[in-house]
Amino acid sequence: MVTAQFVKEKSQHFENLHVRELLKWVYETFDNVGFTSSFSADDVCIIHMIKQIKPDALIIFIDTDYHFPETYQLVEKLKNEWNLNLQVVKPLLTVQEQEEKYGKDLYERDPDLCCQIRKVEPLKRALQGLNVWITGMRRDQSPTRANIGKVEAHKLPDGKTILKVNPIADWKREDVWKYVNEHNLPYNPLYDRRYLSIGCAPCTRPVKEGEDERAGRWAGKGKLECGLHTFTEKE
After folding, report:
1. Which residue(s) pair with 163 in the sheet?
2. Burial class (CB in 10 A: 0-12, 13-18, 19+), 1
3. Which residue in the list 114, 115, 203, 226 is annotated as catalytic?
4. Contacts for 127 with CB less than 8 Å, ≥ 6 apart
């Protein structure tokens, strides 16, 4: 297992690696690697590269039951056309069960609790047994992500250390779309309507000119992260 000290000592080396080189190192070095994907344009780029390195790589999709129809359609399209090894993880509570327990529109009244139930708890289950967790985060997405490294050691709530890899951390939005266009990759049509960060339908709106990429998420709630990337402790 790679230690936090090793990650710190090799951080500059990882920063200098091309995305494919970093992904190749991950899959050649570790077993039990999973890429958690919301099937954003960023994630589709990474899946496209991963497929060239390890065709049967594990792709994990957290199905909150609140995604846009366009998102579900893209997931199904890529699952079938790219023959993805896709693991769909759902919350322990159905939407109906959640409404019976907490009332309707929990995402409006207490978005943190809703995200905890429908995103964070399923992710914790999905990460069990994994040694490496790959994400599609980029530093320019929002202030909360400005300092992420390409490779980080994170401690899970149960005390286990997991390697968190953000292979396109240094990409800009322009780099994502350059790759999408160069490889003619499918993408969520909501992007064409200025949904620059696509999450659950009730909590996502189009982004206005000049706003941060993730400004359309939980607008007016003072919230930029759902908790997927804040429940672990960076070592």
Report:
1. 132, 153
2. exposed
3. 226
4. 34, 133, 156, 162
Question: Using an 8 Å Cβ cutoff, are 51 and 57 in contact?
Answer: yes
Q: Would the pLDDT of 234 be above 90?
A: no
Q: Considering the entire predicted model, what is its pTM?
A: 0.92
* Nearest CA-CA partner of 78 in 137, 38, 118, 19: 38
Give me 215's structure tokens.
Answer: 């400004």
Tokens of 58: 């594990």
Instruction: Name the DSSP letter for residue 190.
Output: G
The three-point CA angle 199-202-203 to 5° equals 55
- The torsion angle over the Cα atoms of residues 225, 231, 232 and 234, rounded to 10 degrees, is 50
To the query of whether residue 226 is one of the catalytic residues in this protein, the response is yes
Hey, what's the torsion of the CAs at 13, 19, 22, 24, to 10 degrees?
Answer: -150
Helix, strand, coil abundance in the chain, percent, nearest 5: 45, 15, 45
Q: pLDDT tens digits, residue range 91-129?
A: 999 999 999 999 999 999 999 999 999 999 999 999 999
